[in-house]
Amino acid sequence: MDDISIKHQPDETSGAALINSPALANTRKVYVKTYGCQMNVYDSQRMADSLAAEGYSPTDTADDADLVLINTCHIREKASEKLYSALGRLRKMKDARAKEGRELTVGVAGCVAQAEGDEITRRAPVVDLVVGPQTYHRLPQALARVAKGERVVETEYAIEDKFEHLPSPGKEQTRSRGVTAFLTVQEGCDKFCTFCVVPYTRGSEVSRPVAQILKEAEKLADAGVRELTLLGQNVNAWHGEGPDGREWGLGELLYRLAEIPGIARLRYITSHPRDMDDALINAHRDLDMLMPYLHLPVQAGSDRILKAMNRKHTGDDYLRLIERIRNARSDIALSGDFIVGFPGETDEDFEATLQLVRDVTYAAAYSFKYSPRPGTPGADLPDHIDEAVKDERLQRLQALLSEQQYAFQRSLVNKSFDVLIEKAGRVPGQMVGRSPWLQPVIIDVHGGRIGDIINVRIIDTGTNSLIGVREMV
Ligand code: 5AD
Ligand code: SF4
Question: CB under 8 Å to 32, separation ≥6 — which residues?
């Protein structure tokens, strides 16, 4: 549940996911505070959608909400401390409201809810409701039970398919969320990297069926979405039976999604190197609309550490894979995740990580200090690394990654490429879009509208964004 305290961290969306569906004619309001990855942002939106059907309209502050849901993330440290301090603030708010005769319902969702269950209601009596990531579709019923005075903890892995039961976004809700959308195609993970809680909190890997994904994608396209980002903890492990009766992987699915009218850009996140199969690499070669940007975490460069992490690949396997991907699509930019200070990591091991980064050259990257997660095998390993050593290694790695990120951005100056316009900028007349490589691009547009894809020439770079002008051809 890190906020943006660590620099390289794009999978983390700190702060609130603003659930901006239009106000419905009702009196109840829900505020969803989202921590963690895009998967949680997607889940928060789905929760808001199922609550919209119950008459709740979204708000972006707890102050005017009747229901506050905290969607938690457990991937790195201090998740529960942060949750309990947020709950402390909500307790004060609830007490103050009680004096005015106004109610406040508090719910905890997400991976911390899954991991801690009843412990949360025990430690924080302010909480009325605890729901794990597999049970969001039961939220309306759970709230009905809360209204009758019950305390509800729902963290069982549901046998039924949560996606089947969650409403997909209505047209209005989608429209107000803009021209880009996430679509979860896969959840959970069977890889069991020894540092990671995901296989325990999100459960084993489940792929959504093709028909369900296509239906949702078509609905999104219909409502004006132009860019789809497929989500999954192990998104490229997605598989399913295609309409042709053959077993499809993510590659085949992308070819099919590319046919949907209105969809102009496709992305997917997050992938494991072991699941980059030929069909997926060929999709990068064949589909212009599959954006040339790939987030492919490697975590470390030393084979000894990769083995201890149970990554099931070596540094060399990864480098050879990158070479194949670059041969298929020469303009592809890479991003990755790294962990420094895994138990037993020597200076030499860490040097191997730096060397791998130099060999690959990343356009963006996210790096973290190893944080032992209770219940994972890594936590029980000997030779944990001192915090000071972790700090020092993280700083060195981030300096190198920042240098590469900056160099990549500078390499785009004077280049022209397509930008999808997502919103108006701060200054009147200015619009903000995204490059194929995911950087925000600030443009002085002449006649461009949200949802347009226009050719932009980059004239300068900001810290994390590009500045461009519309190319008049
Ligand atoms: N400690 C530090 N970083 C971690 N990640 C996952 N688990 C841990 C952990 N225990 C990082 C990995 C992963 C990203 C989402 O979070 O780099 O790819
Ligand atoms: Fe965690 Fe590894 Fe699965 Fe990624 S592949 S979710 S790091 S166990």
Answer: 16, 17, 19, 44, 47, 48, 58, 68, 69, 71
- Is residue 313 in contact with ligand 2, taking CB distance under 6 Å? no
The whole-angstrom separation of Cα 26 and Cα 28 is 6
Beta-bridge partners for 154:
131
CA 182 to chain centre: 9
C-alpha to C-alpha distances, 287 to 247, 252, 256, 454, nearest whole angstrom: 20, 11, 11, 19
Instruction: Give the span between the Cα atoms of 304 and 343, in whole angstroms.
Output: 11
Q: What is the pLDDT of residue 17?
A: 34
Return the H-helix or E-strand segment holding 152. strand 152-154
Which of 254, 242, 305, 317 shows the shortest CA–CA distance to 282?
Answer: 254
**Which residue, judged by its Cα, is nearest atom 7 of ligand 1?**
196
Q: Is 336 in the pocket of ligand 2 (CB under 6 A)?
A: no
Instruction: For the chain, list residues with pLDDT below 50.
Output: 1-25
461 three-class SS:
strand
Give the length of the chain.
473
Q: How far is the CA of 370 from the centre of ligand 1 (A)?
A: 7
* pLDDT for position 445: 65
pLDDT of residue 63: 92
Q: Which of 195, 397, 398, when mutated, tests ligand 1's pocket best, judged by the most ligand atoms within 8 Å of its CB?
A: 195
pTM beyond 0.70: the answer is yes
Alpha carbons 276 and 165: distance in angstroms, whole number: 30
